[in-house]
Amino acid sequence: MLLALVTVVLPNNLFGQDNLPLLQKQKKINFELFGISYRSETPIRNKLSHIFHGGLQYSFVITSGNVIEKYYSSLDAVAASGLRYYLNLHRKNEQNNGNFFQVDAGIKSGSIISRNMYYPAYVYLRPHWGIQIASGKRVSFELGAGLTIGSSIIEKYKGVAVAPNAQFRVGYLFMDRNANKNDF
After folding, report:
1. This model's pTM is above 0.85
2. Which of 18, 59, 64, 184 holds its CA 20 to 30 A away from the CA of 34?
């Protein structure tokens, strides 16, 4: 919450980038390494935007030994909301190209469909750094790394876990053609 308040009140030219193009509103479908999601990005200030995303993620574990006997998998639903602060925007900012720092708060459903594996539902906080690069008018690539700090919402499984995370997404953009780039 403190990060959200600090980034909203930061002046736009804090890092000497006062002539930057403004962010664009984006809606896209992301194809992730092990999942698919819908993502909406809405500008709040020149370098700050609100992110909402929801989708399905696939998890699996293969242990040593016979793969058929030692294979575990799970399909989970996830929904999250957060803030993305762009550290540097490229001068020709057509699709929010640039490095960013993002903090998400979300919930993961736990196993919807599983094979020999059960994940309880949990809430999480995920700070991470990333980069978003556009390719053409409709395709974007995102790469990121950070930490996930989570806790189960089921009393039996309570406890806090911290784990590294990495993301790779290929997105198909549905641009809002009626939105003015300078209009928030």
Report:
1. no
2. 64
